[in-house]
Design brief:
heterodimer; A: mainly alpha; Four Helix Bundle (Hemerythrin (Met), subunit A); 6 helices; elongated; B: mainly alpha; 11 helices; about 70% helix; flat
């Protein structure tokens, strides 16, 4: 039982990084596929399509920061706390990256038709990013309460 | 469900049907992009296109009853419910217009009418009603019937195509990056192609009429005669 609790502690420590990276991979891939299609259909503005497709990569960075904030010697006392914060934060980062990728793909699709709405079409992706930032900031805040 | 992010963003924007003067992508280029579909989805698309855009030849080859049985058999193979509904709606309109034409020409009575879809029974039952008693269920029919009775078949086709275009666009925008999006786009592309072709034939007809009228005016005839005399 002790080993299981310690294993969960390790999963919580590495979870934000791993789950954030998984989300970023999927999100960047979705947006990247949309950007690749838009390149076929447009003459200009290619750089911004590729730029948007990299937006979901920020969740990986948040994951790395949370992992460092949680990094400490894992004991039976702090392992449950690390598991709860790390895994939940990781899941939040993963889903936000995937759905941000979808928002970015839609943004690319509509701004290809009407380039003047490019900025406005990015608003949903920015809002999703906002929720990822919430998960990230409050994971940092709450990690201070986990025993060292 | 397979999602087609690259394919959907690689499809060009189709302007509103009335403003469509030129296709933004040729059939050859479109077919090249459609190779991104999986084999099964490509078959679904081809089947949907065959049912939605039927050539006049295929309509003439079979009498009504076997034709409708053939449509029903093919429709069962379409796996996407929204696409099946769009095709059903298209075929129902086709049946409805056929019924209006048959009645107008007095070719057949209600007992020999074979139509497709929900309205067939109502059409037979209300055969002598101007709009088959469907004016409340299908308000758009009110706009089509006068065009048919005046034999404005070009305008009628245009009105119906605009209606179908909006219907397809609604579904296309409800599904993002799925097979439904692609199929609705290709079906709209087909409507745009029909529109441009009919526009071209209408323009040719009006040009012929105008040239005949012009050649018939005395001033032009006199001018031509004097030109021929000079030449000889």
């Amino acid at each position: 039982m002790d080993n299981l609790i310690l294993a969960l502690g390790w999963a919580g420590l590495y979870g934000p990084m791993a789950l954030g990276a998984i989300g970023s991979m999927i999100g960047c891939s979705l947006a990247g596929q949309a950007a690749a299609g838009a390149l076929l259909e447009t003459e200009t503005g290619h750089g911004r399509y590729i730029g948007i497709s990299a937006m979901p990569s920020s969740q990986s960075i948040y994951g790395i920061v949370v992992m460092f904030a949680l990094n400490r010697e894992i004991t039976l006392e702090n392992a449950p706390g690390l598991a709860a914060i790390g895994l939940l934060c990781g899941l939040a980062l993963m889903f936000s990256a995937i759905y941000q990728g979808r928002s970015c793909a839609s943004s690319i699709n509509v701004s290809k038709i009407r380039p003047e709405i490019f900025g406005m079409s990015l608003a949903p992706a920015a809002i999703v990013e906002g929720f990822a930032v919430f998960a990230f900031i409050f994971a940092l805040v709450i990690s201070a309460g986990v025993p060292a | 469900m397979t999602r087609y992010y690259t394919l959907v963003t690689a499809l060009p924007n189709l302007p509103p049907l009335a403003e469509c003067k030129q296709l933004p992508i040729s059939r050859i280029a479109l077919d090249k992009r459609l190779t991104m579909l999986s084999d099964n989805d490509l078959l679904q698309l081809q089947l949907a296109e065959k049912l939605y855009h039927q050539s006049e030849l295929s309509l003439e080859n079979l009498p009504d009853k076997p034709l409708i049985l053939d449509w029903q058999r093919k429709l069962e193979k379409i796996t996407s419910q929204p696409i099946r509904e769009r095709i059903c709606s298209r075929l129902e309109w086709q049946s409805l217009l056929a019924a209006l034409r048959y009645r107008q020409e007095g070719r057949i009575g209600p007992e020999s009418f074979h139509g497709f879809g929900r309205w067939t029974g109502i059409i037979r039952h209300n055969w002598h009603d101007p709009l088959f008693g469907l004016d409340t269920a299908l308000p758009f029919l009110n706009q089509l019937q006068p065009l048919l009775s005046k034999r404005h078949s070009g305008e009628l086709e245009q009105q119906l195509n605009t209606f179908l275009w909006k219907d397809l666009l609604f579904v296309e925008r409800s599904f993002q990056f799925t097979l439904e999006t692609v199929i609705c786009f290709v079906l709209r592309w087909g409507l745009a192609e029909q529109h441009i072709k009919s526009d071209a034939s209408l323009a040719l007809d009006s040009f012929k009429r105008m040239s005949e009228q012009l050649l018939g005016t005395p001033a032009i005839t006199q001018h031509l005669e004097s030109a021929f005399e000079e030449l000889s």
